[in-house]
Every structure is written in structure tokens, then in C-alpha cells.
Amino acid sequence: MVENERLEKKLEPLSLVINEIKPDGHCLYRAVEDQLKVKDGDYDDPVVEKRFESYCNEVESTAAWGGQLELGALTHCLKKHIMIFSGSFPDVEMGKEYKSGESLGSSIMLSYHKHAFGLGEHYNSVVPFEKRSRPVG
């Protein structure tokens, strides 16, 4: 609960809110998928979609959860800046070379929750308040 309160206080001044993702062991990938859909149709780009689908197919057959290593691979595969907000740890920024300007507008934004769910670590999608939607998956 403390973790979520800290995270909400961090996101509120940025007019951002957490978009809950189903905690099914594939939350990192579902959160990235949600971000690609939210970011002005990035998911409609056939090149980005092909790269993402290819990467997902490679990890689909494993039960391993995604983490920092997979995020590093995704940032380069998608050529996207990724920002991970956390209420328990310092925020993490990956793929700074793909960041466009000072705005986070085209960045993939995720939240990391160490203690929020019974399955353990969890990722959600972070979206502008007006783009909040239902869970993916």
C-alpha cells in the first residue's frame, strides 16, 4: 500500500495514472503492448509490430518473467525510450538514445511494483489520465 501511495504521488504531478495489467506472469509484455497501443498508434506501424511479435514469439514458450534484461532488449528491438516508475526504488530510464526531446510523450512508460501482487513483482502501463483504459489480456 505504501508503495502504491508513493508511486501515485510521483505520477500525479505528471498527469499520469497506472493502467492496471492482468497479473498473469506476462505483465511486462502486456504492459509494453498497452503502451504501443496508447502511443498514437505506434502498434499500427508494421515494422514495430513485426519486431514486437517476433520478440514475443521467442519468449512465449517460456515461463520466465520479464525484467531489466528483457526491457533492455525491448528498448533496442522497438527503438523506443522506456521509463519505469517505482514507489519502492529509483525510477529507471532505458534507451535514452531513442528519447525524443524532453517530453515523455512518445516514451513507453511502465510502473514496477515489488510488493503489490501475490505473484510477486509486477509491471503496469502508465498512461495520461485521459487515456486510461481497461486491463489488457
TrEMBL record:
<protein>
    <submittedName>
        <fullName>Uncharacterized protein</fullName>
    </submittedName>
</protein>
